[in-house]
Write a sequence for this structure.
DNA sequence: TCGTAAGTTTACCAAATGGTAAAAAAGCGA
DNA sequence: TCGCTTTTTTACCATTTGGTAAACTTACGA
C-alpha cells in the first residue's frame, strides 16, 4: 500500500499532516456551522482551507469523517464546564459559575455551538451513540449532585435535568440564534446584558427560601 | 399561456389545488424540519406527499418557494402569543400566560419550531427581511409595554428583550433539542416537568420584590 | 356527452457534487 | 545528490438533484 494517511490509525503524523489536518478542520468548522452537513460542499471546505478537494480527501476519508471528527472534539470541550462542577463546593456558586462559563463559551465559540445545534436539530444522526455514552452518564452524575444539594436545603428545589436544559438553552441561544438576536438588538453590547439577565434568572431560581417566617433580607442584589 | 397555477397570483384556487398545496406543505414541513433546506430533496417531499416530483412543481415554482411559503405561514402563528399579551392586563399573569402558550407550542408544533430554528441557525438567509419588518416592530412594541410595567413597579426589573430571549430559548429547547432531551429523560413525561420548572423560573424572576423589610410571605409555591 | 382547461405522468437534461486514478511535484534521510 | 516516500495536482467519473418538455389523463361546465 503506497499511501494512506487518511485511514492510518498508527504511526506518528508528520508536521505537514498536522498542519493541514488542523487547517481543514478549522475551515470545515466555519462552513459546517453555517450551512449544516448537507449544505456544505467539499469544494467550499477546500476553498476555505486553501487546499484542493482531492488533497482534502488525502487527509480525511470523506466529508462524513471530517464532520464526525469535529463533533467528537467538540463534545469534550462542551462538557468541560460540566465536569468542572465541584460536588464539595458551595452549591449556588458552583452552579452560577457553570452558567457564567457556558455563556462565555457561547460568546467565544459560537461556531461550535451552532455546529452542535445543527446536529441535534436533525436528530443527532452522527452523534446519538456519543450522547448516550458520554453525555448521559455525566448528566446523571451531575443530577445526583444537584439533587443532593437540594435535599440538604442548600438550593431551592429544582429538577436537575430541567435546570441544565434551561441553562443550556438560555446561554446557547445567543450563539445559535445570533441572526435573530442581531435583528432585535442592533449596536448593543449583547453579552453584558445577557450576562446580567441570565445571572439574575438563575440566582433567583436557585437561592433557597428562608426557612421560617423571619423577615431576613435575601442575598439578592439590591 | 396554457397552464400555470404555480405562478398565478390571481384567480380563486380549485378544490384540487387547495388540497394538493396543503398536502405538499404538510409533507415539506415534515421533511424540511428534520433535514433542513439543503438536506431535503424534492423527491423526499414528493414521496411524503404521495405525488410525483413534476406534479409538485406544478403547484410550486420550486423548492425555494415551498420553503419560503412555510416560513411565512409559520412566523404568523409563531408570533400570535406575543400579540396576545394585553398591555392592560396584570403584568405577571400576562407574561406567565405567554410562557405557558409558548411551551404548549413547542410541544404541539415541534416541527414548526425546528423549521424556524434551522432557518435562523443558518443566518436567516430566506427570512432576514421578514424578521426585520414583522418581528422587530412587534418586539419593540412589546418591550415598551414590559418596560412600562417595570417602571410602575409591577414587575421586577428586567431587560425586556433578554427576557423574551430566555423565554423563547427555554420553551423552544424542548422541540429543537428533542434528540438530546430524549437521551437524558427517557420514558418520562417531559412536558409536565418542563412546565413546572419554567413557570418557577420566570415567576421567581419577574415577581417584584416586596418594597420594605416586612417579612411578608411571597406568592411562590412552597 | 363533448370539448376545453386543469391536473398528472413519462422521459429527459444540465449542473452540482462526492469521490477516484494516476501522474507530477516536493520533502527528506542517507 | 540520489532515491524513496509523502504530498499535491490534473483529469475524470458516477450519482444525485432541481427542474423542464410534452404527451396523456381526468374533471367539469355547457
Amino acid at each position: 500500500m503506497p499511501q494512506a494517511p487518511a485511514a492510518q490509525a498508527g504511526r506518528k503524523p508528520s508536521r505537514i499532516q498536522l498542519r493541514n489536518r488542523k487547517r481543514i478542520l478549522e475551515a470545515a468548522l466555519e462552513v459546517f456551522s453555517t450551512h449544516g452537513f448537507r449544505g456544505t460542499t467539499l469544494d467550499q471546505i477546500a476553498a476555505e482551507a486553501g487546499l484542493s478537494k482531492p488533497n482534502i480527501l488525502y487527509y480525511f476519508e470523506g466529508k462524513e469523517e471530517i464532520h464526525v471528527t469535529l463533533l467528537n472534539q467538540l463534545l469534550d470541550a462542551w462538557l468541560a464546564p460540566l465536569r468542572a462542577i465541584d460536588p464539595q463546593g458551595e452549591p449556588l456558586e458552583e452552579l452560577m459559575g457553570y452558567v457564567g462559563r457556558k455563556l462565555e463559551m457561547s460568546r467565544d465559540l459560537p461556531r461550535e455551538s451552532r455546529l452542535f445545534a445543527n446536529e441535534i436539530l436533525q436528530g443527532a444522526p452522527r452523534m446519538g451513540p456519543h450522547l448516550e455514552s458520554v453525555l448521559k452518564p455525566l448528566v446523571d452524575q451531575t443530577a445526583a449532585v444537584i439533587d443532593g444539594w437540594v435535599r440538604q436545603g442548600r438550593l431551592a428545589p429544582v429538577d436537575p435535568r430541567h435546570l441544565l436544559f434551561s441553562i443550556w438553552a438560555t446561554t446557547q441561544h445567543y450563539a445559535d440564534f445570533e441572526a435573530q438576536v442581531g435583528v432585535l438588538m442592533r449596536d448593543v453590547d449583547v453579552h453584558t446584558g445577557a450576562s446580567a439577565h441570565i445571572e439574575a434568572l438563575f440566582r433567583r431560581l436557585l437561592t433557597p427560601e428562608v426557612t421560617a417566617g423571619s423577615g431576613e433580607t435575601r442575598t439578592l442584589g439590591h
Q: What stands out?
A: Residues 71-206 of chain A form a domain with the Tetracycline Repressor; domain 2 fold (CATH 1.10.357.10). Chain A has two domains: 15-61, 71-206. The two ends of chain A are 71 Å apart (CA to CA). Chain A touches chain B through 58 residues (CB under 8 Å).
